[in-house]
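Key result, reporting period 2: structure in, sequence out.
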């Protein structure tokens, strides 16, 4: 079991770095415009202080952080031109090495809050029979 721990730590660091690299890629001048919408949605969600699926819900509460978010980050990282992703990974490594705090995006709060409001309104409408 011990050999798996270093591999897991390496994978977790790479996932954290790549998520942060996408934040830099969103602002990179050579990032294609068609990728920026996907980057905006994924980065806003990843950097949001609230989750679409609250973590206190057993098992599925961590589903987005454990499966969905890494898949989205991986797909977007592969869609970016190699030079852009390499440059953004370097910026992310430097950011992490300097000990900066995790960036936040208010847009993520707005998007997730909006989704929750629509879901609650739909549930209320269904419950009240309107």
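The corresponding designed sequence is given below.
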């Amino acid at each position: 079991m011990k050999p798996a721990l270093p591999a897991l730590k390496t994978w977790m660091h790479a996932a954290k770095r790549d998520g942060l690299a996408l934040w830099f890629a969103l602002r990179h001048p050579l990032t294609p415009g068609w990728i920026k919408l996907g980057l905006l949605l994924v980065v806003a969600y990843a950097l949001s202080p609230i989750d679409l699926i609250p973590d206190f819900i057993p098992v599925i509460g961590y589903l987005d952080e454990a499966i969905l978010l890494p898949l989205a980050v991986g797909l977007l990282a592969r869609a970016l031109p190699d030079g852009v992703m390499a440059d953004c990974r370097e910026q992310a490594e430097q950011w992490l090495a300097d000990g900066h705090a995790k960036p936040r995006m208010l847009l993520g709060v707005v998007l997730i809050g909006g989704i929750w409001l629509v879901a609650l309104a739909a549930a209320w409408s269904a419950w009240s029979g309107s």
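The chain has one domain: 4-128. The mean pLDDT is 85. This case is discussed further under Risks and Mitigation.
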